[in-house]
Amino acid sequence: MGVTLSSAERRGDARDRLLARLLDAYGEDLPSPQVSLREVAARAGTSHALLRYHFGSLAGVLAAMLTEQRSRDNEALVKTAEQCTFDDFVMAIWRAYTRPGRLSRVHGFFHVVGLAAYSPGDFREFIESLDDLTTMLASLAEREGRDTKESLSMATVAIAALRGLLLQKVLTPAVHSDDAVALILRISTGGCAP
Predict the structure, then answer these.
(1) What pLDDT sits at residue 2?
(2) Which H helix or E strand runs over 113?
(3) Which pTM was predicted?
């Protein structure tokens, strides 16, 4: 006699498979917020009705894809963190999100953040994933001898500043931010008074 899965488990499996198809279809990119759900479905080889059922809207598709892509990025960054200092890891994060080919994802991140600011309940999974890098950085700071509170403060400042610089890079791409990243490190580690 076989085991019957609950309908919730079946939906989760179907949603995960659909998300995998979307990620395969788009690779490192995200669909543009200007395309229709039908266009996204066609590219992924599925129906827009399935996308609407599992993700609610194009914004839901973007948030789910971005959350999964960031989760994969973080898995790779965790391996990097094992051999890094706090400063090295901040630079690794910066390089990971500013390398060529990531601009679509950075644009998508800020699009979803804007939507989540107006409707946080619709983007709970995405919002919950936002502290992952802060947590990793804080543990590195603790490993380097900082206390828990100071470590969390350092990590929070570094991540907030990196996100601000990424937004600046999206809005004014000609601005060079590498010197600003070095300043972030000095400020977040207490080497320069704000």
Answers:
(1) 33
(2) helix 103-118
(3) 0.80
